[in-house]
Amino acid sequence: MTAGTGVAARAEIVANVWKLLTEVGAEVAQGDVLAVLETMKMELPVHAPATGTVTSVPVAEGQIVQEGDVIAVVG
Question: What is the pLDDT of residue 3?
């Protein structure tokens, strides 16, 4: 799944963005945790889908995201 000029890490479920662990410009490896979502007292990590540079983080801590929403883009 791509978004813009990279590969998107997406929410797998409706949840609250509990903690962002990355920012635009950060170098990440495939599998790194980019954010933690919270739903029904469960914490769900969002992993980097590829190795590269984070080019977009279109969400904020405390924001409610829907299934499929982009959490971060790695290019």
Answer: 47
Q: Given CA atoms 1, 67, 24, 36 in this order, what sign does their dihedral have? A: negative
Give CA–CA dist 9/70, Å, rounded: 6
* CA–CA distances in Å: residue 16 to residues 12, 27, 42, 45: 12, 24, 10, 12
Q: What's residue 1's pLDDT?
A: 44
Nearest to 20 by CA among 5, 30, 7, 32: 32
For residue 69, what are the domain limits? Answer: 2-74
Structurally, the chain folds into a number of domains equal to 1
Concatenated DSSP letters of the chain: -EETTEEEEE-SSSEEEEEE---TT-EE-TT-EEEEEEETTEEEEEE-SSSEEEEE----TT-EE-TT-EEEEE-
